[in-house]
Amino acid sequence: MAPHGEGSEEAMVVQDENRKPISSILIVIAMQTEAMPIVNKLQLKEDLDSVFPKGVPWVRYHGVYKDLHINLVWPGKDSTLGCYDMDMGYAFYLGVDSVGTVSASLVTYAAIQALQPDLIINAGTAGSFKVKGASISDVFLASDVAFHDRRIPIPVFDLYGVGSRQSFSTPNLLKELNLKAGKLSTGDSLDISPQEEASIVANDATVKDMEGAAVAYVADLLKVPAIFIKAVTDIVDGDKPTAEEFLQNLAAVTAALDQAVTQAVDFINGKCLSEL
Ligand code: ADE
Predict the structure, then answer these.
(1) Which pTM value belongs to this model?
(2) Which residue lies with its CA nearest to atom 9 of ligand 1?
(3) Does residue 128 line the site of ligand 1, with CB under 6 A?
(4) pLDDT digit string (tens) for 91-134?
(5) Known active-site residue 196
(6) Architecture of the domain defined by 23-79+89-275
């Protein structure tokens, strides 16, 4: 048997896979506000007979759109922090979205196992930097992803901590959708410490989110190609406090995200991985 690498049996299997039309996409999104416009646009339906373990808050929407089976998963609301608001005269569930790397990696793992997608799209909002020329509502397709808050200053553990991975290369998608290209850096905080700022610079990142590198880790582990579409809600090196700017822009920026994701799905439809 030929060894691993170009021309090996393994490489030829991957080449064959890349030439089959894509039939199933998994969209991973952290926040309900980001997810619902896409669910509505693609006319996805909530899965009432969950493929996930009983009791977890993870939510799956699914449907057939053109020639594609689409699954969109959202980690749901944190189970310990929810409450009901009775002010409206009916019970309205208030809760907090399970953002961050832990929930993102768990729901991605469970969804890949249950649904065996051909391609993952991790979509969401992100911070960006004016020194990198970014503006609010810009939409980025990340070329690389890495962590900026896993500091392990021991040789090789340091590289494991950064966990840098390339996203699946999609030059035609980038050009067709006229998206911006940049590297993505992930951490579990919305704000940024001086050490994290230095790591983001070391990662040469243009966009900063709270899930991407975790999704990339799981996708790489299970050998599923993944791409990352991130829309900018706040300028990290700007004048406004991040949380305030994020909340102010969230609803408007999700419209830009929704448009980019649905255009990406339209572009992917009928193509194989090697055509992206
Ligand atoms: N999502 C939106 N804005 C963000 C930021 N500044 N950092 C991390 N995740 C974000």
Answers:
(1) 0.92
(2) 209
(3) no
(4) 666 789 999 999 999 999 999 999 999 999 999 999 999 999 99
(5) no
(6) 3-Layer(aba) Sandwich (3.40)
